[in-house]
Amino acid sequence: MNRKEKNGLVTICFVLVLAACVPSQVCSESFLQPGETSIFSFSLEDGTRVLLCAGEDDEYLIFRLLAADSLIFQYPAVPDSNSWRLFEYSSYSRGGGAANLGMDINSLTFGTDSVMYTLYDEYYAEDESYSDGLRMVSPVGEIDLEGVPESVTGSLIPFRFDYSSLVVTR
Question: pTM above 0.85?
Answer without folding.
Answer: no
